[in-house]
Amino acid sequence: MNKVSFFDKRLLKKFWQVFSGVGGTISFILLFWDIPKKYKIVALLITVIILIIYYVNVWRIANQQKKITLHFGESSVDIYFGDIFQSEDEDLKIITFNEYFDTEIRDNPQLISPTTINGKFIKKNKNKISLFNEIIDNDEHLNSEMLIRTNHNRKYGKKKQYRLGSLVHLSDNYLAVAGSKFDKKNNANITMREYIGFLLTFWGEVDRLYNNQSVVIPVFGSGILRFTDGYANASAQELLEIIIWTFKISRIKIAYPSRIKIVVFENKSDMYNLYKLKEIEKDGL
Questions:
Q1: Residue 277 confidence class, pLDDT cut points 50, 70, 90
Q2: pTM of the model
Q3: Which of 148, 200, 221, 272 could be bridged to 225 by S-S, CB 3.0 to 4.6 A?
Q4: Fold designation for 67-282
């Protein structure tokens, strides 16, 4: 559970600002109007009760928040609970693949888990797999600028290994991104340094391909991705904050009416604290 605590420092700061404003206003009024002594206690109690009700209401709203919008210069980032497959038809939707852009769902060894966004996308488009493979194999930018090597020692799956963060436009406004490394056992893993590098490359690729369309992404790495350099316990909230932070420092502009949309599956909403994200808009991580 990653909800807003009752004594969250951001809530307390906001409440103190309101309290200071109310206190200043009352003090100013009392310069010109004196409350009869017999009503002072009643007035104090009423003021305290109103402030308590206000604080509880703000805390309740913060915990029930389903969407938040952050602004970085001319760019807007929406974070909300939903389903990436139900996004607007005209939006560019990013699906995470591994660094080989494998398109085969198999069990032994497992290349793509059917329960991931990648797996669900492949199952929804199983009649287009040949088309996807053709697009990936023939994409000039992908196979010149982003190709790392051809791994002839790989027993299963594709052989061409691409740079993390590489993007390729598939079809129907879906883009594939190389978002995880595979070890010899085909386990998805990455270091935190590689994860940040992947995101910075990804934002550069988005800037190249978004074509004035809004871009919808999941919280990269919040599923089966393993961190191998001491960050194994990185929470989904922390990954979300890193995604937003790297967008901020990338300095790319996704100007209105286009925007970045980060969608979190509804059944994982208790892992996120959207209220906390306003800090990144102002101060960074």
A1: confident
A2: 0.81
A3: 221
A4: Leucine Aminopeptidase, subunit E; domain 1 (3.40.220)
